[in-house]
Write the structure tokens for this entry.
Amino acid sequence: MSDTMLEVRGLNAWYGESHILHGVDFDVKPGEVVTLLGRNGAGKTTTMKSIMGLVGNRTGSVKFNGTETIGLRSDRIAHLGIAICPEERGIFASLNVTENLMLPPVIAPGGLSVAEIHELFPNLKERATSQGTKLSGGEQQMLAIGRILRTGAKLLLLDEPTEGLAPVIVQQIGRTIRAIKERGFTVLLVEQNFRFAATVADRHYVVDHGVVIDMIPNAELEQNMDKLHDYLGV
Amino acid sequence: MLFGYNLSPILAQSVLGMVNGAFYALLSLGLAIIFGLLNIINFAHGALYMLGAVVSYLLLHFLGIGYWPALVLAPLIVGAFGVLLERTMINRLYKLDHLYGLLLTFGVALILEGIVRNSIGSSGVTYSVPEALRGATRLGFMIMPTYRLWVVVASFVICITTWLILEKTPIGATLRAATENAALVQSFGVNVPRLITLTYGAGVGLAGLAGVMAAPVYSVNPNMGSDVIIVVFAVVVIGGMGSILGSILTGFGLGLLEGLTKSIYPEASGVVVFVLMIVVLLTRPAGLFGKAA
């Protein structure tokens, strides 16, 4: 295996006529937690979707463990070992909690067992037969993360997992990300909340207007606070 | 006796109405599954039902293959034809307006009917009832032709089995999820294009199966599909587009309603379904079992 797990070079993406990504470059190494920071509309979610093959029109290069994925269909990309937890969570209303959890097929060994997922998120066990969309926002987020931990995917794309959630749930999700990092998973995280990102990530890429404009290691976050405030407009 | 009516002819007509209901249910079930996942209004459904009957006739007359094997073979053949149709034509239409799918499948229906009309003629051919199901069965309040009883029972079992597969199995859960958000299900590693093809094949296979079961009841003729499909679309509208259980219950229910009307006011039996459709559209536009958009 090469030193880089995910290698993104010159990634361009379009939604219809709108040109969203203008040559995104970044790397993720195995076992890292890396965030994409940036303002609303900077292209973070589109970057995630492009990696997963969910944006129809994309060019450039996305290599996963050395395999070029730019021309592949999303189900093929999934089988290479990438899984997404989308921003809108994507919980299915016509499926109950257990069916939602069991929906993504196992693509490789090394995923968490259902018992381990229930240990991380006890609520999912209690509400196993509830309709997926009857769960609270926090529980839906746990379900959306939990179901991709089962599949054996090694790179997890988490798109704003803390958005709109109560602080106690945000802490639980933070603990979860640290726990799965310890288990050897690699995480690419989109976050608006860089204070949360700082508690889990190794490195941060700053995205603006469809390109990566900077990389800040988590250890140097304090020294770069002014710059970061400037980038994010906070 | 109730309100001056002798009940047993009414009951008898209702049960006979269930025979039509059995075909409505099988056909609208397939339509609902196809519409749910493919978003295609499959106008070829009636023609594929007719094809099921024609295939079982051809199997018998050219290969000597009887009713029971045909019950398995004809749906497989019709299903395989559906797979071919989806792979080569329908799959080009998913990004376009509903209208294109409707036009294509309507055209396919006309072509199939034309081919059958040229080969076996408009008046059709007969297909005899299999030996084991000849004669009549005493039900207490009526004597029912055994074959028709078989049609009602078999269709009910097939519909319930299909519903259980959709509601209670992992493949059913995948299908329901793909109906909600196909792109996300595909990004989990599910081969959604293949799922769509097989779903279309299974849906039209059900139509083929209904066709085999219909062959001994009605004459096998090129128009048998277009005769029934208009009512079946009314069933789908009344039950609610895409609702699986709704299409089964509405199918049987409307057969029953037609039968009842036939014994109480026969002149209205041909329009009662459409009157009900108008009432449902005015009061519950999403259908009796559909969810409001």
